[in-house]
Amino acid sequence: MARIKEVAAQAKVSVASVSRVMAGHAGVTAATRQRVLDAIKALDYRPDLAARRLRSRRTDTVGLIVSDIRNPFFTEVSRAVEDVAYQNRMRVILCNADEDPEKEALYLDLMQDENVSGVILSPTLPTLARFRPSDYSFPVVLVDRCDRDTAADAVVLDNVDSAYRLTSHLIEQGHRRIAFIYGATSATGRQRHEGYVTAMATHGLETLAKAVPATVEAARNAAGEWISRRSLPDALVASNGLILLGVTEALQAAKLRFPDQIALAGFDDLPWTRLVEPGITVIAQPTYDLGRATIDLLLQRIAQPAQAVRRVVLRGELRERGSSAKRRA
Fold it and tell me: What pTM, to 2 d.p., does this model score?
């Protein structure tokens, strides 16, 4: 395996010049940079990352701990984080916590062992309740999930407002008995439930809500219980894409038509929501932008550790489709 001294000799530069090129420093001429890059390629040189970590006490690595990688929302967020990290010559360690606080704690310890430069985390409610940025030797930015009083950098959707607008849309369409199924393990689900409750109270309507694990199966079973008890609401609202899919499967299995027999709406504008006739009304989240804003905020925090805590709040877009239309007489 080639060493940095051999690269310097082939490029006819100093070892320090090779290091500056590899670090992306600006104080290197274009001709020198090209000679070093050509030598690296010719010798198939790979830097000793372990030694570099020991010397600098930091890595060019960030951690990304998501709650459920099966959720397309987090797949898109992860893509944005990786894209920006790549542009900044950084690597990403991706961990899937499965909505499990113990796994979150394990992965946060792993990030400590890996000496990462920073971490992006979508925490469960138990982890969020005890979360303090000062507990970690690296900066942490929360993505998607954050309480109002959490003193940490975060990028989130305006969840209360989004759920309020989605529920109000159904009420304006003439639906009165509106049920809400939401994720039981996250601040996001709790905040969207708050928006639903506020909209129903504003119009003097009773709430009908159920908290479930944020999985397709749990949502399917919850919707199935209402169907089997013949206590079908006028409309169903799902708090995220996985729950929306489970609810949709339950309603289709019962051969219920949207919106003539029941209206349907939810979060996340996934491709399948446009294919289910007559199209499902959703709050479309700016998911890629959310992921990009999160990694940008983390990089800023790494560069300026003393800067004030920041929270970026993005707005969802209500996309009306046939599933929430007024019922035909």
Answer: 0.80
